[in-house]
TrEMBL record:
PANTHER family: DNA-3-METHYLADENINE GLYCOSYLASE 1, DNA-3-METHYLADENINE GLYCOSYLASE I. This is DNA-3-methyladenine glycosylase I. The gene is tag. InterPro entries: Adenine_glyco, DNA-3mA_glycosylase, DNA_glycosylase, Tag. It comes from the Bacteria. SUPFAM superfamilies: DNA-glycosylase (SSF48150). It holds the Pfam family Adenine_glyco.
Length: 187
């Protein structure tokens, strides 16, 4: 973490948020399970701020068995009720149930395409898109690519994968580099 560095305008002063921006956001991520975790957390963010989710990320990891799809896909009604009682996570029934549904689709994608990450990265031809935004106000909420990814994942049965959620996911996973031109992480 670089002190007194110029960062993207969305970063607040919390060291947790600064570390997330500096060390994770926009760095290409290819690991299937880590991409599943990130997609899950982005879905949990719907209607909330990423900062809220980030502060709860460790609780989410603990509650959802470190986002292991092999375990999550076997969750039943008792586990759903347990999760809905957990104050450390977002206790929204539809969001919780979507994680189980999405774990099942995760395996469908792997069976069909060989890897979850490979499938997701195929939407950007396997290479990060480098944008050149002057300020945060220039950054779109969604793009034709996130629209396409959203449509494809919904068709496969995934939930909480709207275009805006997926564009945030693409930014976070490094599929697009949306660090503003003045941000020291740009390089």
């Amino acid at each position: 973490m670089k002190e007194n560095a110029i960062r993207c305008a969305w970063v607040n002063a919390d060291p947790l948020y600064i570390a997330y921006h500096d060390e994770e956001w926009g760095k290409p991520l290819y690991d299937d399970q880590k991409l599943f975790e990130l997609l899950t957390l982005e879905g949990m963010q719907a209607g909330l701020s990423w900062y809220t989710i980030l502060k709860k990320r460790e609780s989410f990891r603990e509650a959802f068995d470190h986002f292991d799809p092999h375990i999550i896909v076997k969750y039943g009604p008792d586990k759903v009720e347990e999760l809905l009682q957990n104050p450390g996570i977002i206790r929204n029934r539809l969001k919780v149930q979507s994680v189980i549904t999405n774990a099942s689709v995760y395996f469908d994608i792997i069976r069909e395409h060989g890897s979850f990450g490979g499938y997701l990265w195929s939407f950007v031809d396997g290479t990060p898109i480098i944008n050149h935004w002057e300020s945060i106000s220039d950054v779109p909420a969604s793009t034709p690519i996130s629209d396409s990814m959203s449509k494809a994942l919904k068709k496969k049965g995934m939930k909480f994968v709207g275009s805006t959620i997926l564009y945030a996911f693409m930014q976070a996973s490094g599929m697009v580099n949306d660090h503003t031109l003045n941000c020291y992480c740009r390089a």
